[in-house]
Amino acid sequence: MNSSSPWNNGVIQRNHTTKRLTEIIRRALNGENVNIAIMGGSISAGGGLTFDNEDLRGMYYRVFSDWWQKTVEPLTGSVAKLHNLAVGGTSSNFFAFCYSVLLSPNTEMNLVFLDFTVNDYLQFRYSKFPMALSLEQLTREILSERNSPAVMFINFVHGVSKIPMCENLEVHGQKMLAQNYGITAFSLRSFLCSSPSVKWKKFPKMFTSDGNHASILAHAQMALMIINHVRQLMLSVLDRVIRSKEVIVTKFSLPTEDNKITLSDCPLKLSDLPESVFKSYRHDFSEHPLCFTQITPDCTTNNTIHQTLQVTEIGNIGFQVIQKVSINQRSPLNQIQPFQFQTFRTDGYGGWKSQSANSMLELEILIPFSKPECILEGTTPSRNVAVAVRTNGYGGTALLWLNEYEERGVLIDTSSMFGHTKLLTIARHVIPGRHVLSVRTQTPGTFILSGVMIGPTYK
Question: Residue 277 CB: number of other CB atoms within 10 A?
Fold first, then answer.
């Protein structure tokens, strides 16, 4: 790795995120641990690297964590704890509903890496809504967390036969999000797509043998940009500390009354965010969403996913329950040793699976009532209901509907060249209470229902 100019040009710094990260660094200097969450698709899950037998400890966030462990931790006692939530073939719309379900309970994120530039572009490029809409929804959810985490956009480049495809989310709305919310972005596009002379040029060392995913060298260059950025900020903070001879730590404070902490029954979120970029689509946003999913970033643990939405099977003809099906896994998961050379991915999925036509599934969904004071401004007590399915090369179709409204059902086709997580809205303006989601397969083929989500309906 080197720190040549093209790589430095890949860092676009925004003051608002720098302020948040500065506070995290101040706390680290006081010995507080830093929780780092990684959300993304196959690149952050190790896609491509596993087939090249690369050590996954060379992925960008693990290199950053290793630098922190060797450089920052010995001086401060601050430990960087990684929480990798990445799942192959999964875009930001899934995480906007479900990231809190995938996190370990009571985990407060301090720093969040969002790696969706490739997946969101590939999945939403033909959609009728702005391509960066889902990323904005996720970004707002994270930035409004009560402990004010810092967010960074991690922008890799998709390849075709090791030729970089320069059209990605960066030029289709992500830059506007970065400017609006003050997000610092790290990009390989500024190097791989820096001039017309490199168009259609192959970069064999920057992609894995499949020609699509970021290579171990690309991960190293991404890690270098992140490390240099954090290091410079840390030196700046240390310089101010030395001059002032003190560390000032700013923390979120809960409301108090008579020196006693008072907790609201509503989800605690900060709301001092700028107006949304895609405000005309605000009815599609899902603040405080609820999620039930069998998609997991880690098939190797026995930890139970802490669902936020209650879903119960009440009828089943022809569906089987599957759990922890590994994504692009070639060897048994029990071979994985977390502190040794690692060449195995851990992400996977589960849910209800059918392979024949006329299979039938009924799920009871309990949509909770919200107290009047908890209903967000501009929203109603009713909810939107969405589902997550996993696509595959032999996918089938199914009709999904809520309650007795079969005539309003949504037909979902899960056939796709590449396996990915697909979200679709099934019903809108659904009142709180008990509801039944029905699924009936229409054609032979693999149909997998992997999740159910709800979010608010706007007036």
Answer: 20
